[in-house]
Design goal:
The chain is of the alpha+beta class. The chain is built from 12 helices and 12 strands. It has helices at 9-20, 68-82, 92-95, 106-110, 122-125, 129-137, 153-167, 171-180, 219-223, 237-248, 257-264, 334-347; strands at 2-3, 26-33, 36-49, 52-55, 62-63, 189-190, 233-235, 280-281, 298-302, 306-310, 316-322, 349-350. The chain has a 7-stranded antiparallel beta sheet with strand order 4-3-2-11-10-9-8, with helices on both faces. Helix 2 (68-82) packs parallel to helix 7 (153-167).
Length: 351
């Protein structure tokens, strides 16, 4: 399997057009096959509002938004499985006794089939991070577990709590020590320090105020101190390339090939969505991989404008990092754009 590089000129042309038309502020995009990087380019601006202009660079740190779920929370849980400390069938109540349902298990949380709500405005109804965590741990279900696929931030907030109970460390510390450091993802972090602010892509501004820079865009994650299982992670493209290559290189030993196979398999084929462990499978309503990618591919997106996809069979991968939300969350074009760009890449593949 290889990629015809001459067909990738359309990729850069389309992204440049999006920047020049002020539909997205900027982007960093990379794609490859297993350990080979085939394409890596930057476009536009890390910040471009209210008279502040900063160019995008290969070193720009992005607010990953919901990519946090598959870059921090998921691999931490898989590591605990590899270490014989966690099972998918383990009940949430075994780790969080105050959780009100005795049927929900780790598999339900990872596949978004737990019955928990999609989200709650905890940042509005709770006064402190401890108040939020209490509400999350005692959240009631909206449907019977295992009967529907409802994408849930709340479920991944609970998974962060399970990581802390089983792993003995808060999710930011556990992921840094057990995932990011071994992979040399040295600039992947929660809560970037002030000295790194100029390296962060700006996200949304409130009204006429300044844009968020280095502060998590997700309101619940911000109210929780910037650290959660559903959002909060920042990373540059270089680190995410190392991460996705771990999933596409069979010889890589950080996570076992067995646990990776389980993670990318669809566990919800008989329900109204197609979900692996954390990952979105082809055909799910949130599938952003266009029309031409292999049916064995999986991926995930983030609200700020980020996405990651890979095919464990061919080794194809693509990472698209944008700060699309910087221009506001209304009339966004990133959902359609992701699929169009993946079509370009999929059509450039040669068996």
């Amino acid at each position: 399997m290889c990629i015809r590089r001459d067909r990738l000129t359309a990729l850069g042309s389309r992204l440049q057009q999006e920047v020049e038309s002020f539909r997205i502020p900027g982007a960093v995009v990379a794609l490859g096959i297993r350990q080979e990087i085939v394409y890596y380019e930057t476009f536009g601006y890390a910040e471009n509002r209210n008279g502040t202009v900063r160019k995008m660079s290969p070193d720009t740190l992005f607010d990953l938004a919901s990519l946090t779920k598959v870059v921090a929370t998921l691999p931490s849980l898989l590591m605990l499985m590899d270490d014989g400390r966690l099972r998918l069938s383990d009940k949430v109540v075994d780790f969080i006794p105050e959780f009100p349902d005795h049927e929900v298990c780790v598999l339900h949380l990872l596949t978004h089939t737990s019955g928990l709500p999609a989200s709650r405005p905890y940042h509005r109804i709770c006064k402190t991070p401890d108040d939020i965590w209490h509400r999350v741990r005692t959240e009631t279900l909206e449907y019977r577990p295992g009967t529907r696929v409802v994408y849930s931030d709340v479920g991944f907030m609970l998974l962060a709590q399970i990581i802390q109970v089983v792993g003995g460390q808060p999710i930011d510390e556990y992921a840094r020590q057990h995932i990011f450091q071994p992979l040399k993802m040295n600039r992947t972090m929660y809560c970037p320090p002030r000295e790194l602010q100029n390296l962060c892509a700006a996200t949304e501004a409130s009204h006429d105020g300044p844009a968020k820079v280095g502060i998590v865009h997700d309101e619940n994650a911000e109210a929780m101190g910037g650290i959660s299982g559903h959002a909060g992670l920042f990373a540059p493209m270089t680190d995410l390339i190392r991460y996705v290559q771990m999933w596409t290189s069979p010889q890589y030993a950080l996570l076992s090939s067995a646990v990776r196979r389980v993670a990318v398999r669809c566990h919800t084929a008989d329900l109204d969505g197609r979900r692996g462990l954390g990952w979105v499978c082809r055909g799910d309503r949130y599938d952003h991989m266009g029309d031409t990618w292999p049916q064995t591919a999986v991926g995930h997106t983030g609200f700020t404008g980020t996405s990651l996809a890979f095919d464990p069979e061919t080794g194809l991968w693509m990472i698209l990092l944008t700060n699309d939300v910087h221009y506001g969350r209304e009339n966004r074009t990133i959902v359609r754009l992701r699929s169009l760009l993946h079509n370009i890449v999929g059509s450039a593949m040669v068996p």
